[in-house]
C-alpha cells in the first residue's frame, strides 16, 4: 500500500482478505457493520449449521511495531466460537494470517504486556500504563509461528 493510507483502509483491507480466504476455502463470510466492538467478520458453512465470529487486526509493511491492539484484548471472552486473525500485509504483496482462539491471544498479549510493563526502562524508571498493546514478531513463540496461514481452528469448527 502506498504511504499515507489511513488505518481505516488498512483495517478494511484485512477484513476483506479474511473473507476472501474463507470463501476460497468454501465457507460463507461477511464483514459486519463498522464499530462492532467484538468482531468484524461472521463466517458459516454453506449449510448454515455452524458459524463463528472473527476479530481482524491488520498491519501493513509500513507498520514496524506490529499489531496495535486495544487493551480490552486482555479480557477473556470465554466464547469458543470467537477468533482473532492477525493479518500481515507484507511489502512483497503477499498476505499472511495468524489465527487464534480469542482467549488464547488474550492471554498471550496479557502475558507479553505484563513482562514489558514490569521491565524497567533504560534509565531504571518504571514504565507507564498505556491504553493499547503492541503484539509483534519479537513476542512470537513457536506456537505463534505455527499459526501462520493455518486456518484449521476456524475451518474445522465450520465443517
Describe the structure.
The chain is globular and about 60 Å long. The chain is of the alpha+beta class and 159 residues long. It is built from four helices and seven strands. It has one domain: Trna Endonuclease, Chain: A, domain 1 (3-Layer(aba) Sandwich), CATH 3.40.1350. The model has no long low-confidence stretch (mean pLDDT 94).
Question: What are the defining features of this structure?
Answer:
4 helices; alpha+beta; two-stranded antiparallel sheet; 5-stranded mixed β-sheet; 7 strands; globular; Trna Endonuclease, Chain: A, domain 1; single chain; 26% strand; 159 residues
* Biggest sheet: strand arrangement: 1-2-3-5-6
Please state the overall shape, judged from the principal axes of the Cα atoms.
Answer: globular
The structural domain count equals 1
Helix tally? 4
CATH domain topology: Trna Endonuclease, Chain: A, domain 1
Which CATH first-tier class would you pick? Alpha Beta
Uncertain regions spanning at least 5 consecutive residues:
none
Mean pLDDT: 94
Quote the distance from N terminus to C terminus.
34 Å
CATH architecture descriptor name: 3-Layer(aba) Sandwich
Rg value: 16 Å
N to C succession of SSEs: HEEEEEEHEHH
Strand residue percentage? 25-35%
Derived structural class: alpha+beta
Helical amount: 25-40%
How many extended strands? Answer: 7
Reported for the largest beta sheet, the result is: 5 strands, mixed
Strand and helix map with partners:
Blueprint: H1 7-24, E1 28-31, E2 41-44, E3 51-60, E4 67-70, E5 82-89, E6 95-101, H2 102-118, E7 132-135, H3 142-146, H4 152-158
Parallel strand pairs: 3-5
Antiparallel strand pairs: 1-2, 2-3, 4-7, 5-6
